[in-house]
Amino acid sequence: MNTSAGYPVGQVAAFAGVTVRTLHHYDEIGLLSPSARSHAGHRRYSDADLDRLQQILFYRELGFPLEQVAALLDDPDADPREHLRRQHELLTARIGKLTEMADAVQRAMEARTMGINLTPEEKFEVFGDYDPDRHAEETRERWGNTDAYEQSQRRAASYTKEDWLRIKAEQEDWGARLVALRESGAPADGEAAMDLAEEHRRFIVDHYYDCTYEIHTGLAEMYLADPRFNAFYESIAPGTARYVHDAIVANARRAGA
Amino acid sequence: MNTSAGYPVGQVAAFAGVTVRTLHHYDEIGLLSPSARSHAGHRRYSDADLDRLQQILFYRELGFPLEQVAALLDDPDADPREHLRRQHELLTARIGKLTEMADAVQRAMEARTMGINLTPEEKFEVFGDYDPDRHAEETRERWGNTDAYEQSQRRAASYTKEDWLRIKAEQEDWGARLVALRESGAPADGEAAMDLAEEHRRFIVDHYYDCTYEIHTGLAEMYLADPRFNAFYESIAPGTARYVHDAIVANARRAGA
DNA sequence: CTCCGGCCTCACGCCACGTGAGGTGCAAGT
DNA sequence: ACTTGCACCTCACGTGGCGTGAGGCCGGAG
């Protein structure tokens, strides 16, 4: 009765979202050899083969070279739960990294809006793929005392454009109104301050990216925590960073409720 | 004074966390040609070059082929905010995909703990890289009526191992105690039910992965929403899925407060 | 009986680099 | 003055993970 045992290669490819060639390749290198062949020499994949393929594609997606994938899957003292556990860890780690990158992009965007120049190291903070301590120390040690390094350390990055200046003007106008409001004695969680915070958010949305209230409060935290941004606001007038922070938080709360 | 203009290739490589060869390659293919050369023919990268490199690595990290990266970066009517906006979108999209994968792994782990067999399509739900509708329909249309497909549709996946059976026994013991508790009339948010929920969580932690309270409540939701898991619990006794859900939620609340 | 769709096996091509091999320029130590 | 050493240079071939035909086999439908 059960004349057909196992799935043919095309079907497996369709299931897994890969090409037939890929399956051939995995067979060639011995990573996934179908457990049987039909009379005509056609590959027949069993359910167990499909499971293995699923694992393979998973590790591949996370950037493992196929050779290592084979080593992982053929490890005799690694049972299914070992793999699931590891996969879960890898995924959360990966998500964490991407979230960090997203945060770094946020900071980069903010740096641009405010005209803060980043040092070369800061520019690549996004990619935390090297050991941070060792790298930072070593780099400073190796390059920290050369002329090129010292002299270009805080050089202007020359983002000079046309509408860039227009945006900056807008930004400064907002800053001026902020200072005026604060000097008038208006509270940070008052109507006017919240409106100004909302205007700030809209400003970002219009010119840069889709800044949600959640992201906006994240930025507010950064204005307090990150020395660069903190210094920027404090340079306007002492206490401004805190004031802006509170206004943004209040505004987000208003929008959320 | 300023005799040294620009960073040498080794320094740039160290900053960016790439090899010198990579920078040479980008120069060869015209993706990133340093804006100057020293007297001795050495590459000198300007700050603007570093910015471009940062962008390149960003898009590369997200899987773009270098040719497309060049196209994106050289696009004349794409200003900085365009890129930042796009990068932000790409990142959040990617994070979303990974989160989905993590969820799918959760389900796979749960399926294993309960001995539910997945159909071939279900096994690859993790990788949402094909158009779901078109794919699902088309696959069924093309393969749905072949013998191989029908007959192996719900075949046992033969996970038969030794300690796998032991775990299953543990699991069944837990199930029995759950049913007994519920029949005794104990409330789902009572002490005993919560203890049983906690035991369930510990069980997962010990045998599978680090299941936090947050994840655990996520699983509880799934027990209600996903037909497969729902059916599993309901097959024990009607209302069990809900009972388990409530117990887990109550337990998480207890732990959280 | 032919046609067609899916399968097969070579075998070469491609991208994004890795990895030497062999040579240059400069600065520091002997 | 001379070697040592380091960072840089330019070929140029190798590698991983497939893509992309070329040419042929096989079983069912028209």
Automatic annotation (TrEMBL), chains A, B:
Keyword terms of this UniProt record: Activator, DNA-binding, Transcription, Transcription regulation
SUPFAM superfamilies linked to this entry: Antibiotic binding domain of TipA-like multidrug resistance regulators, Putative DNA-binding domain
Domain HTH merR-type residues, every copy: 6-75
Taxonomy, superkingdom: Bacteria
A family per Pfam: TipAS
GO-annotated molecular function: DNA binding; DNA-binding transcription factor activity
Name the record gives this protein: Transcriptional regulator
